[in-house]
Amino acid sequence: MYVSSWHICLHSNIFSKQMKVVIPLGDNDEIRRTQHTFINLVVTIILSMGTGGHGVPLLGSPDGRVRYKYASFWNRNHVVRALQHTVNNFREMLEAEKKERKREETANMEGLFIWRGLIL
Question: What is the CATH topology of the domain spanning 2-119?
Answer without folding.
Answer: PH-domain like (2.30.29)
